[in-house]
Amino acid sequence: MLMRRIELVDASPAEVAAVLERSPVPDRAVRAQAAAIVDEIRRDGDKALHAANVRYGGGLPIEQIKISPARMAVAYEGLSPDLRDALEDAAGNIRAVHREQHPVDHLVEPVLGIHVERTWSPLRRVGVYVPGGLAAYPSSLLMGVIPAQVAVVAEIAVVTPAGPNEELDRTLLATAALLGIREMYAVGGAQAIGALAYGTETIRRVDKIVGPGNAWVTAAKLAVFGDCGIDLPAGPSEALELVDHTADPKAVAADLISQAEHGPDSVAALVTTDSAIADAVVDAVAELLDVVERADTIRQALAANGLIVIADSMASAIAFVNSFAPEHLSIQTADPETIAAAIPEAGSVFLGHWSPHSAGDYATGANHVLPTGGLARAYGPLSVEDFGSWRQVQTLTKAGLAAIRATIGSIASAESLTAHRLSVDIRFEDSP
């Protein structure tokens, strides 16, 4: 079978739980090895960074890892006009969408004489990880850098692994030039995360690291969390299609394989109440595999993580989708808006027959750095807000403090924290 099939009405709770069980967090062995690499970078700086590049690949010699803006500019000048226009169009859309996300300060006066303000400030320095190596992802560079620029982060350091023969993708370099990047390093994997988190002689430490990567990158981000901020642990790409009889089987199939081609560990799932449309989608997938370049990768992904779920009702289908909490959710039904309102737990939702995943991956302006492995229950897409921090500012007048004096005193006494009560009462001693 091309994809595993499960009938929800006949499946046991254990079977359903097994289907839902997945995690963006790598296994313990990978986490331990990534943590060891990170510790070496923290301890020995450039020396360890160079050694890791030699051992694991993906990085240039230490004296060559910093990419000059001049080299980026040369790559930009070498772009074809069509690709240059495409990158600029995508960047413009991403910038337009993310400008509307800029946080707004709030001031509340819950009691006369008490002001509680919430203010947002951009981070000073962030690191953006861009996957690379065998493939290049200029789109991920756009998605990571533009929100940081909209947030007005002062310093942005980009890291990305070199490809075969220690070469960097020219389109990636050109995209960096388009964005005005001044600091870019040819280094990837866990060692890149360690360098960003703790700093080396060549790469200064950052306040936060964002961007997707492989299991080693994810494990390294988890290892540095606490010493350095991270966006979220990102696992393999996921696509879930919720469809009914109105869907075009070929379009649904194309959406599924568009995410499956990311890698053999990608997840591709179809949920429907209609067995006939499920069969038609599977047939369409088989046909499309004859015309795509990464058919072997897609077949591996479908064999490992391809899934067809047949529900006995749309309510049951919706419940399954919410439990799955997918990274990408496509709703191709007669009334996608109504169904979407019942599914809050998804990273990026695509409504209707004319909304393919690839539109969001590249050009709508929505961010494609998304929660995977069910983390859409607690996280959302990368946004401008991820590139700053909130603080609270509280100002009280004498009248304001007097208004809540008894409240503070009662709760402090209940918690046996009498000094808390004293810090209020003492201000009113000998006070008229």
In words, what does this structure look like?
This protein has 432 residues and is α/β, with parallel strands linked by helices. The chain folds into three domains: 4-24 and 235-365, Rossmann fold, CATH 3.40.50.1980; 28-107 and 122-230, Rossmann fold, CATH 3.40.50.1980; 397-428, no CATH class. It is built from 17 helices and 15 strands. The model has no long low-confidence stretch (mean pLDDT 94).
Beta-strand proportion:
15-25%
The overall pLDDT, averaged over residues, is 94
Strand pairing plus helix content: what structural class?
alpha/beta
Query: DSSP helix count?
Result: 17
Basic shape: globular
**The CATH H-level homologous superfamily of the largest domain:** Nitrogenase molybdenum iron protein domain
How far apart the termini lie comes to 84 Å
How many domains make up the 3D coordinates? 3
How would you write the strand order of the largest sheet?
1-12-11-10-13-14
According to CATH, what is the topology of the largest domain?
Rossmann fold
| CATH 2nd-level architecture of the largest domain | 3-Layer(aba) Sandwich
Total beta strands: 15
Helix content: 40-55%
| CATH class call of the largest domain | Alpha Beta
